[in-house]
User: Fold this.
Amino acid sequence: DYKVTGVQTCALPISIASHELKTPLTTLSLQIQMAKQKVDLKNDTAPPPAKLAKVFDDSGRQVVRLTGLVDDLMDVARIQSGKLSFTFEELNLSELMKDMTGRFSQDFAKAKMPMTVHAEENIVGRFDRVRMEQVIENLFSNAIKYAPEKPIDVSLKKDKTFVKIVIEDHGQGISQDRQGQIFDKFERANASSNISGLGLGLYIVKQIVQGHSGSIHLESLPGKGSKFIVDLPLDGTKLNC
Ligand code: ADP
Assistant:
């Protein structure tokens, strides 16, 4: 088992990583085993299609979760070796936000989170599309994980050469003493929480935002909610090169 010694808090806590990776794998393998047991080759019978469809849906969810975890670990490896690269292109961030809020609307509804969106139209700049999606997806997923059944407010505004994305939830919030660390690798604000995660999402988000020459800040009051504020230059490549 991994032991944190001294100040070396950035190493991979293998015990956490393997627990997070193994949980969906165990569930997946059980689901498949149980379905397989009900397939009787001798009598040529199988569970009814509705039952099988449920097994496929449940298994699919575990695969999505595993894929997300592996992607995050790969991103961290890329960041560590300095190989997180960006493909900047002209991008309408307003359209992207519309797309993302649309994609998440069912998840927010399922989590009983009424959503308000105030987005200026046609904010165009140079961004990496896939990485921007990843930033928004991470912040939305965290809101669902840590602030269910509370409203979520999203806004997108242009200010001269910058764009400001604000994602505010009204959930459990983050205590003052943990606020400085949650953007670090493997840092989780509430270690005893039974909500799963590797503590990598916000670390990756911050690296992506910085790769766009932007910044990310948190304003939070425990019990009241968390407000994540992302400031991005419309053309971060100019500042980078
Ligand atoms: P993970 O969710 O996998 O733990 P993240 O890096 O995305 O990793 O988040 C780090 C920690 O920050 C979380 O474990 C959680 O404690 C805290 N956190 C992130 N987003 C929120 C939020 N919207 N509300 C409350 N706490 C949050």
Q: What stands out?
A: The CA atoms of residues 125 and 161 lie 9 Å apart. The beta strands are 89-92, 115-119, 124-127, 152-159, 162-169, 215-221, 225-233. The chain is about 45% helix and 20% strand. Residues 49-80 form the longest helix (32 residues).
